[in-house]
Structure formats: structure tokens, C-alpha cells
């Protein structure tokens, strides 16, 4: 049956939004479902777990709990219950969009001095390795919240696949083993980490079966008692004592105080599409909205690739400058979002762009530079009723802090490095920007995670990507490709580029530009630099004209992982 979301309903609500803004949650119409489901994640075991829960009568939100918790077992280098996530939910029954902020928080005893070396520069060893690099995890509370408020099944049913796989074991893929190799020196520092990831003191060979009874028990406590099963009682005691023995500063009160936040998503209208995306403490949605508002004043379709790319790079440059300058945790800092998201502000920024000359970043008002990382994971779900989830999850760098709290099987994140820990360091005039994202007890560190929906008259996309600061530009380019009519697999395969204000260069994936385009961009003053790797993007699309779903995962992943983005009929 052909079904489109009621564009007339959507059109009558457009007056609610001027350019980009914090739209009311009600202004995306409810719709009938596609009658089947699609899931795209970074691992086939996680995708299968989502379908297992859908087959038991769960909805997209239950599936999201199953996918997230299974990723926490089978792709724990990228995310886990020692980390956090940001998820965008679309409820088909009333058309409501909700943003779940399960981002980590700084512990009460956070002390910026420990992250500064004797030379006054950031001490990256402390901010990225070991328990002092870990924020208070948000993922367990976020999963419990999603099950309780949006799911149809009990939390225990949605966690069952993850618990089973943790107990029975699975064979880690080449990517998992490669990241153990990358982080082996740090994992070797902590006995509970080495016991899991370096059996016999070595990086395991492929074919190795990883069984995690401690992690299964920790997940079981969460399944039985909900968030209290993680943030109070035995798990909490083990987390705090292991962390403190290894030099960390968490207390039981930090864990007990952790709360999930529901926030209003950001909404931006662009070329007849409505993009719903992540608000602060993600910087991603603000930056994506700013870029789209700037680009809405150009007709990119009339330009050659070099000139349309040039304008997009210039819009990225300006959006990232603001990202660095203004953004932080909305519960702690006042941000000029009305200004950043307004059409008038975008008009002003657009007027500073030369049609054929790069603006050196140091000619723009100064701000701090963002620090890119390449980890994290994203999955996308649409269920048979049209409920949707875009969820990006992270422990920050590969295996987060590298520190497993003994007896829990939980790898703690190293998300403290996402705070501006040493204000003024990269740039003496960037102090104000750093302050918005300076650590404070209980504060959430700024994230780039940008789970997004794109609603059009004929098609809808659920999209997101890992990739540190490149998350934002990868998701932006995916959104633009979808609006250009590309399919899910064309979007994930599309070659990518990235500019983040500082360093003042364009990171380019091999094959993104032909020789002539690269030369034109260079002649305009852009510095092009080859970059690899790029984020593992997972996209689901829904064509309302044919009611067809399409799921695609990133073709950049190593081969042999099975089909991880799948569409299935679910009764
Ligand atoms: N840790 C990556 C991010 O949140 O952006």
C-alpha cells in the first residue's frame, strides 16, 4: 500500500519553525507504518538481537535496547554500558520526536589540574586512559528509561540476547581484534582488562571465543532491578571500589545521582525537507542546522562539484567555529541558540563567503579547535508501525579508558577527554569557548553525536555515524545525499570530506574528488589532506510511495562480517 506522511499536515505546521529552531515535538505528523522493519547496525549479532525482540512483540524502542546492549557485548571497543548514548525517537502513534540524552557526567570530585601536564599542556594519558578519564556512565540508565517509557516489553526481555551472548560467547571479528592490538599497552596496565582481552598475555588470534560471565551478571542485575541494578547495590559498589583502587575519584553518590534527560530535538527545514536532530549537549545538531541554513541561500544544483563543495566547506568552517565557541551542557551554560539557529544569522555568515575563495580560518573571530576522534557506533531502526530510532553510542576512544572494573566486566569510558580540560591551550584567545565546555561536577561533556531523522513528502531517513568531530560532517553529507535522492547504500558508500575550522584544512577520503575538482579547490585556497578511516555509517530509509524500507551499513567495514543492515517482515 502506498502511504506518505501527511505533507499537508506538515505544511500547515511549517509556520512554527523559522529556519532552524527548537520546534515543538508535535510538528512532525504521525503516519501509518511500513508493515515491516529495518535495522542497520555495526554488527550482525546486534541487528539480529533487534529482530529477535521485534519478533517477540517489541517495538523499535525495545529493539533499540536489544541492539544497544548487544553492541555493548560484541562491539565493546565502540560503546558499552560503561559509556553513554544519545538517541532520537519517533513515536508513530502521535508523531512525537524525543531526544534521549544518556550522556556521561563528570564526577563530583573532578579536578581539572590532574589533566594538565607539567608543561601546561593536556596530559592525554590521564584524560584518555584509566579511571580518571571516565565519566559516570549513562547507557544503563538510558536503556532502562527507553524500555520503561517507550517499549512494549520488560527491560529483561530486551536485554536477554545480550546476556545470552555474553554468557555463551561469540567470535570477535577482525575489527574487534584490531582494536585490541591498538590499545594493548593500555589494556595490559589493568589486570581485569588484560584478563578479558589479552588471554595468555597476548592479543588473541581470529577464531577466539570471548565469554564474559561478569558482564552477563552485571547485565542481569540491570535486567532485574532496572537502573538501580547498576547505579546502586553490588554493581555500583564494585565500580566505585575498583575505580578508586586504580586511582579514580568516583563515589557511590556520583552513581546514585546520575539521571537521564529528555530534551527537545532541534528541527531545521531545508529544501522541502524537515531534519530533526540532536540538541546540546551535542554540538552536532546545531552545527548541521547552521550549515543547512547557510546553504539554503545557494542553489547547489546549479554549481559544479568544486564550487558546491567549496560553499559547503565554508559553511562547515563557520559552523564549527561557533561549535567551539559557544556550546556545552545546557543545564550548566547559557547558549545563544536562538541566534545560532536563526535564518538572519545564517544570512550574515553567508554574506562573508566568497564564491570562489577559501576564507582562512584565522580571519574569522577566534575560537578553540575541536579534537577529533574516530570511534563510537551508530544504529538506525524503523519498525512495522513506523516507530523510529536513531541512536549513537560511545565509550569515546577504542575500549574507552581501557579500564575494566574488576568483577563487573564493564569497560569504563574515557569521555572526560571530550571536555575542554585545558582552557586556552590551543589558542590563547579561545578561553570563552573552552569555558562553555569546561568540566564541572555533574556536567555533561560536549558531544558530536548527531542521530538524525530526515522527513520528506515521499521519503524518510534515519541516519547517524560514529567518527568524533567528523560525525557532524558525515551526517550532514548523508542528509544532503538523501535530499539529492540517493539510496541508503549510496549514502553510506558516498566518499566524504570534512572541515572543522581548525586545523584549517579539508580532510578528504580517497576518491571524493576527481583531479580537476581537487585542483579547483586547491586554487581557491583550500588545503586538501587525505584522511582515513571514516565513520561506520548505518542508514535506514523508508520510501512512502512504495512503502519500501532500505537498510545499509558502511561498505568501509572489513568484509566477512555478515549482512548487518537488514530489512525483514515482522508480523
Ligand atoms: N566521544 C565522542 C563524542 O561524543 O562526540
Automatic annotation (TrEMBL):
It catalyses: an N-terminal (5-L-glutamyl)-[peptide] + an alpha-amino acid = 5-L-glutamyl amino acid + an N-terminal L-alpha-aminoacyl-[peptide]; an S-substituted glutathione + H2O = an S-substituted L-cysteinylglycine + L-glutamate; glutathione + H2O = L-cysteinylglycine + L-glutamate. Its EC number is 2.3.2.2, 3.4.19.13. The keyword Hydrolase applies. The keyword Cytoplasm does not apply. One of its GO terms (molecular function) is glutathione hydrolase activity. Cleaved by autocatalysis into a large and a small subunit. Pathway: Sulfur metabolism; glutathione metabolism. It holds the Pfam family G_glu_transpept. Keywords: Acyltransferase, Glutathione biosynthesis, Hydrolase, Signal, Transferase, Zymogen. Residues 1-25 form the signal peptide. This enzyme consists of two polypeptide chains, which are synthesized in precursor form from a single polypeptide. Belongs to the gamma-glutamyltransferase family. This is Glutathione hydrolase proenzyme.
Amino acid at each position: 500500500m502506498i502511504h506518505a506522511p501527511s505533507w499537508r499536515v506538515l505544511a500547515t505546521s511549517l509556520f512554527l519553525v523559522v529556519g532552524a529552531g527548537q520546534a515543538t515535538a508535535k510538528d512532525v505528523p504521525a503516519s501509518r507504518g511500513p508493515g515491516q522493519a529495518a535495522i542497520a547496525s555495526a554488527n550482525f549479532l546486534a541487528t539480529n538481537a533487534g529482530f529477535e525482540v521485534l519478533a517477540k512483540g517489541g517495538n523499535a524502542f525495545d529493539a533499540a535496547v536489544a541492539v544497544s546492549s548487544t553492541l555493548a557485548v560484541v562491539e565493546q571497543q565502540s560503546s558499552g554500558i560503561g559509556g553513554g548514548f544519545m538517541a532520537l525517537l519517533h513515536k508513530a502513534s502521535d508523531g512525537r520526536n524525543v531526544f534521549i540524552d544518556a550522556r556521561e557526567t563528570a564526577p563530583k570530585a573532578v579536578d581539572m589540574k590532574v589533566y594538565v601536564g607539567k608543561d601546561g599542556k593536556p596530559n592525554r594519558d590521564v584524560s584518555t586512559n584509566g579511571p580518571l578519564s571516565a565519566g559516570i556512565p549513562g547507557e544503563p540508565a538510558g536503556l532502562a528509561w527507553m524500555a520503561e517509557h517507550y517499549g512494549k516489553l520488560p527491560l529483561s526481555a530486551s536485554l536477554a540476547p545480550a546476556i545470552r551472548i555474553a554468557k555463551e560467547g561469540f567470535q570477535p571479528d577482525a575489527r574487534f581484534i584490531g582494536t585490541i592490538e591498538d590499545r594493548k599497552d593500555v589494556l595490559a596496565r589493568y589486570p581485569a582488562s588484560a584478563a578479558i582481552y589479552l588471554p595468555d598475555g597476548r592479543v588473541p588470534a581470529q577464531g577466539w571465543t570471548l565469554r564474559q560471565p561478569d558482564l552477563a551478571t552485571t547485565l542481569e542485575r540491570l535486567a532485574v532491578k532496572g537502573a538501580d541494578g547498576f547505579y546502586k547495590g553490588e554493581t555500583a559498589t564494585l565500580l566505585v571500589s575498583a575505580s578508586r583502587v586504580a586511582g579514580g575519584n568516583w563515589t557511590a553518590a556520583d552513581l546514585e545521582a546520575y539521571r537521564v534527560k529528555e530534551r527537545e530535538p532541534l528541527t531545521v527545514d531545508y529544501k522541502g525537507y524537515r531534519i530533526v536532530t540532536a540538541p546540546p549537549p551535542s554540538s552536532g545538531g546545531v552545527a548541521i542546522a547552521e550549515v543547512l541554513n547557510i546553504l539554503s541561500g545557494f542553489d547547489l544544483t546549479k554549481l559544479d562539484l568544486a564550487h558546491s563543495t567549496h560553499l559547503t566547506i565554508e559553511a562547515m568552517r563557520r559552523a564549527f567555529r561557533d561549535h567551539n565557541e559557544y556550546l556545552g551542557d545546557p543545564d550548566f551554560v547559557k547558549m545563544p541558540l536562538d541566534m545560532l539557529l536563526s535564518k538572519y544569522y545564517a544570512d550574515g555568515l553567508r554574506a562573508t563567503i566568497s564564491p570562489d575563495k577559501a576564507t582562512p580560518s584565522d580571519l574569522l573571530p577566534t575560537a578553540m579547535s575541536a579534537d577529533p576522534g574516530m570511534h563510537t557506533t551508530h544504529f538506525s531502526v524503523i519498525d512495522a508501525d513506523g516507530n523510529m530510532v536513531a541512536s549513537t553510542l560511545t565509550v569515546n576512544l577504542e575500549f574507552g579508558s581501557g579500564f575494566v572494573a574488576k568483577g563487573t566486566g564493564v569497560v569504563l569510558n574515557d569521555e572526560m577527554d571530550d571536555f575542554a580540560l585545558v582552557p586556552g591551550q590551543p589558542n590563547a584567545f579561545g578561553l570563552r569557548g573552552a569555558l562553555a565546555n569546561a568540566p564541572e561536577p555533574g556536567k555533561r561533556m560536549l558531544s558530536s553525536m548527531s542521530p538524525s531523522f530526515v522527513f520528506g513528502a515521499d521519503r524518510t531517513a534515519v541516519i547517524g555515524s560514529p567518527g568524533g568531530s567528523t560525525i557532524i560532517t558525515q551526517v550532514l553529507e548523508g542528509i544532503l545525499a538523501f535530499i539529492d535522492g540517493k539510496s541508503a547504500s549510496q549514502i553510506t558508500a558516498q566518499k566524504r570530506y570534512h572541515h572543522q575550522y581548525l586545523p584549517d584544512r579539508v580532510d578528504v577520503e580517497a576518491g571524493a574528488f576527481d583531479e580537476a575538482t581537487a585542483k579547483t579547490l586547491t586554487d581557491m585556497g583550500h588545503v586538501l589532506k587525505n584522511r582515513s578511516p571514516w565513520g561506520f555509517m548505518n542508514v535506514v530509509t523508508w520510501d512512502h510511495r512504495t512503502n519500501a524500507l532500505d537498510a545499509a551499513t558502511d561498505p568501509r567495514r572489513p568484509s566477512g562480517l555478515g549482512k548487518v543492515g537488514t530489512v525483514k517482515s515482522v508480523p
